[in-house]
Amino acid sequence: MTNARLAREARYTLRGLPFAALEWGEPDGRPTVLVHGFLDHAGSWARVAERLGGHVVALDLRGHGHSTWIGPGESYHFPEYVADIDALVTALGGRIRLVGHSMGGTIASLYAGARPDAVERLAIVDGLGLPDGGGGARDRMVQFLDGIARSRPHRPYPTIDAAAARLQSTWSGLDAAWALELAARGTRAVEGGFVWRYDPRHLVRAAVPYRQDQHLRFLAEIRCPVLSVHPERSLFAPADIGVLEGAIPDLRIQEVPGAGHMTQLDAPAALAAHLVPFLR
């Protein structure tokens, strides 16, 4: 368990499927929901969540962490993620504060635009700025078909320590203890070692490309205050970030110097220092 002293593992049934989450605090008042990014899991929020106070729920998205994989012949798409968040919000009482990182930021912004009355505050951590992919629709379909045809299981790591070392090589800001915590929650034992818990079908390119013009329509419908957090080393082009942020009616921006895309891992205290006054 990640941060066992403060967090507890929780289970939700959403849309008939079992989901896992990490929770901090007790259900009292407006909950804060944290949504992780691509191939990540709820544990990466631990050092931020413990600083936020109140009731905090970090969900493992479908096909990630300890949550269920979808059945054969199905795919992972943004509408499904958004519908899962909608079901979680209903389970939590119908109105939340929402924080999303990377892909989770896109999911959170789509949800806030579709259900503006359900979100009291929205914070997006390096999750706005995708370039438009509409012109490559045919290529994406070919990549999807080819990816499905050659999809393979994960290759195992011999030990959890080896998986942790892989995380450290990918995100240089991780200390050894934190990397080991993340690897322990993010892997499962198989014959021959340990594999990541996320469904390897996530590595197949989605058949439908991201359309910036459609995302803009969602952003324009958000009615709550929005905080966009910019790490110093963002993955996204400033021009794309600017276009998308320009559509948000009530926006404020904060920067995290020295942080990379995985801001919650690189600078959890600095990120929490921006989130706490905004969310509360």
Structure, explained:
- The chain has 10 helices and 10 strands.
- It is α/β, with parallel strands linked by helices.
- The chain has a single domain (8-155, 208-279), classed as Alpha/Beta hydrolase fold, catalytic domain (Rossmann fold).
- Helix 3 (103-114) packs across helix 7 (212-220).
The value of Rg in angstroms is: 18 Å
Q: Reading side by side through the largest sheet, how are the strands ordered?
A: 1-2-4-3-5-6-9-10
How much helix, percentage-wise, in residues?
25-40%
Label the structural class: alpha/beta
CATH architecture: 3-Layer(aba) Sandwich
Report the oligomer.
single chain
Task: Give me the strand/helix succession.
Answer: EEEHEHEHEHHHEEHEHEHH
Q: Termini, distance in Å?
A: 27 Å
Overall number of domains: 1
Quick overview:
The protein is an alpha/beta fold and 280 residues long. The protein has ten helices and ten strands.
Question: What order do the helices and strands come in, and which of them pair?
Answer:
Elements (H helix, E strand, L loop, with lengths): L7 E7 L2 E8 L7 E4 L10 H7 L3 E4 L18 H14 L4 E6 L1 H12 L4 E7 L11 H14 L9 H11 L5 H11 E4 L2 E4 L15 H9 L5 E8 L4 H8 L5 E10 L2 H4 L1 H12 L1
Parallel strand pairs: 3-4, 3-5, 5-6, 6-9, 9-10
Antiparallel strand pairs: 1-2, 2-4, 7-8
Helix pairs in contact: 1-10, 2-3, 3-7, 5-6
List its salient traits:
about 280 residues; alpha/beta; Rossmann fold; two-stranded antiparallel ribbon; 10 helices; about 20% strand
